[in-house]
Amino acid sequence: MAIDLKAAYKTVMDDHFTPTMEISFVDGDKRQTLVYEKVSWTIDGINKGLRYGENPGQEAAMYRLINGNLTLGNVTTIQAGRSLVTTAELLQSGKHPGKINLTDADNALNILRYLSASPCAVIVKHNNPCGVAKGSTLAEAYDRANKADMLAAFGGCIALNRTCDKETAELINRNYVEVVVAPDFTDEALALFATKKNLRVMRIEDMARLETYAAERFLDFKSLIDGGIIAQTSFVPEARTINDLIIPEITDKEGKVHRINRQPTAQELDDMLFGWLVESGVTSNSVLFVKDGVTVGIGTGEQDRVGVAEIARDKAYRKLADRYARETYNTPYNELNDPTKQAACDAFANELKGGLIGSAMVSDAFFPFRDGAEIGIREGVTSIIQPGGAIRDWDIIDCCNEHNVAMVFTGQRSFKH
């Protein structure tokens, strides 16, 4: 008998998680208790929670903080009643959300909370951004984010920090999308999305004050294989403005002072800071390239820094070749089936060095040696932002000076595991 492998993805699991969850932190007679309630939506007249967890067959539930507060040391976590994702209004469901849809949306908001000054779009796939861009309009921001990696954007989660209008919705509707999240939607946009059967459309009105979350921390849990839990306060980037960046100046063990010769331009500073804030939502080890307010190449989850820089570089080349194929031949690069056309796409990407000329290189941790920075410098990178703090910081400074590359330190690592 044939097995319907697709059936598993259509199954809605009944979860056995309790309606309420409490977590208490106890120190002698002092008790701090956080109270959570399980989140569900009414879809087709039926009350439903999460579709399933990370995979079919995994029960899952999402809980919303409804009472209590927690102060550990001098850090107070986000208070009850200040929820974002857990209070999302499901305007259109098709298939109702699963765990991955919501964690993708959550990570997109994690990035957007630092980028509220301009219309901005974040496209997330498998909990990592594949395209992030700002623009003069929301439609421009989305279009640039989508073109940054049109292949990975297929089936992604799109988060917008402005009301989704008709122009933006028309662009989104050209592609297959799983989720669209925004603070609001115009009637014209909702009418367009209604033609997409399985699209989840989520309105989060509190996104209008998303920037107020920029410096706030939440409690982050990691469950271990033996049932243990690691609890930590969440990461918040300390360098969130240009004035927070550090111009490198290091004294080596021989007493020689090494300092960056060239100061970054205003555009380089803007790109470096933009990339550093995007880094907060990228799985480490990671290296990004940013140019003119849009990600050009994103390398994630690699074990060594040279390797992840090479991944980001290679992706920039591949994505530019793919974009050229779509715009010139109306066909994705991988579907051309024509060596001559593929060669033309490769030649275009090679001539422009993957769009990396004049870009900013972003690293979530310091470069232990100059070889990691050299990956970007050879492609025409003109600025680098990184935490600093390596024993050989002086060598990275010398490397940048030899190639007239500007560099700044953030003074803080941005790992995300």
What's the arrangement of secondary structure elements?
Blueprint: H1 7-10, E1 20-27, E2 30-38, E3 41-43, E4 46-48, E5 63-67, E6 71-72, E7 75-76, E8 89-92, H2 99-112, E9 120-125, E10 128-134, H3 138-148, E11 156-160, H4 166-172, E12 177-182, H5 187-193, E13 200-203, E14 219-223, E15 229-233, E16 249-251, E17 257-259, H6 266-279, E18 287-291, E19 294-299, H7 305-329, H8 339-351, E20 360-363, H9 370-377, E21 383-386, H10 393-402, E22 406-409
Parallel strand pairs: 11-12, 12-13, 20-21, 21-22
Antiparallel strand pairs: 1-2, 2-5, 3-4, 6-7, 8-13, 9-10, 9-11, 14-15, 16-17, 18-19, 18-20
Sheet-strand content, in percent, reads: 15-25%
* Strand arrangement, major sheet: 8-13-12-11-9-10
What structural class do the secondary elements suggest? alpha+beta
Low-confidence stretches: none
| Span of the ends, CA to CA | 42 Å
> Major beta sheet, specifics?
6 strands, mixed
The number of helices is 10
Note the overall shape.
Answer: globular
Average pLDDT score? 91
**Helical content class:** 25-40%
Give the total of beta strands. 22
Q: Nearest-angstrom radius of gyration?
A: 23 Å
Describe the protein:
- The chain has 417 residues and is an alpha+beta fold.
- The chain is 27% helix and 25% strand.
- The chain has 10 helices and 22 strands.
- The strands form 7 sheets. The protein has a 6-stranded mixed sheet with strand order 8-13-12-11-9-10, sandwiched between helices.
- Helix 10 links the parallel strand 21 and strand 22.
- Helix 9 runs parallel beside helix 10.
- The longest helix is centred in the C-terminal third of the chain and has 25 residues.
- The protein is globular and about 65 Å long.
- The mean pLDDT is 91.
